Amino acid sequence: MGRRLINMIKFEKDEYLKMGAMVVSKRPELEAIAEKLHQRGYSNLFLTGVGGTTAEFTSMKKVVENHSSIPVYCVNAAELMLEGHKQLIRNSIVITGSKSGDTKETVAVVKWCKERGIETVAITKAETPLAEIADHVCLIDSSGVENTYLSFYYILLKLAELRGEFPDYAQFASEMEHVHEGLVQVKEKFEPVAAKIAKQYHKEEYQMWVGSGTVWGDVYMFTMCILEEMQWKRTKAVSSPEFFHGSLELVDEDTLVILVKGVDACRPLDERVEKFLNQYAEKKVIIDLSNYLIPGVDAKFADICSPMVFETITTGRLAAHWEHHTGHSLAFRRYYRQFDY
């Protein structure tokens, strides 16, 4: 008997798979960039951007650190240009990205690096300011944050393999060829959960999101970029280890707490928060990523793929249900990119 068909709101499966195939097709180009960087040699990597890009890089930095000894830093682009960084030298590689290709701080930081003789890498779309000025560019115009991760993984994890530190890269990259089919199944599994969460809690005046490890950057991004920017919801993002040093005092009968349990070495930190919530929180949701492993992808890659999974079920599914119940378009902004500020 085949899988039961799930009708997902605001989701076009064929378009999603087509876009995923396009990203996968960029693998040789992205790996070629990694090979050039490896042959050239480098002292360290700087992942830089602003907004959601910085949040994504926060999680990518964790993945790189967990699977290689490459010195890697994640720095906000605006701060980097003002403060500099003692570890940023001419032999550093600065890696960035922008879906629009014209994010002011991102374009500016690449120019800033070029003025200092520092090589830059960018993933962005064609005919944009960023595409025109970075030293190494891969042109990708895609939606879905999971595609952003996959694109950068083809560079970052390939670099780790070239150093002899991630021998499973070939297997990982091979399994990514069909990862979008697996992610569709993950979406389908989470769909009724997303519908329930949004229906029950879309009117909450305040909510707290908790997570750790390789998905901490994504937990922060969902609260900031989706719930705050796109839904105007007052939220708080706190990491599981920091939850017990302040935020726990806000837990009461009126506070919604959503905990994301990861699948990496930091999972015990999430379980500690879960134990506390089970004792003291009246309103709580536990999203356990171990229940949403990607079919067709070896479990040994679960930590690497966990940001992709989190994004595909939250930004990719929960956000659509939130919009459906609030009636507030995800595309509407009062201030962001509406005028100069």
Automatic annotation (TrEMBL):
PROSITE patterns the record matches: SIS
Gene3D superfamilies this protein is in? Glucose-6-phosphate isomerase like protein, domain 1
Taxonomy of origin reads: Bacteria, Bacillati, Bacillota, Erysipelotrichia, Erysipelotrichales
Q: Which GO terms describe its biological process?
A: fructose 6-phosphate metabolic process; protein N-linked glycosylation; UDP-N-acetylglucosamine metabolic process
Q: Report which superkingdom the organism of origin falls in.
A: Bacteria
Any one GO molecular-function label of the UniProt entry:
glutamine-fructose-6-phosphate transaminase (isomerizing) activity
Protein name, entry field: SIS domain-containing protein
Pfam families annotated for this entry? SIS
| Domain SIS residues, every copy | 33-165
Q: Which InterPro entries match?
A: Fructosamine_deglycase_FrlB, SIS_dom, SIS_dom_sf
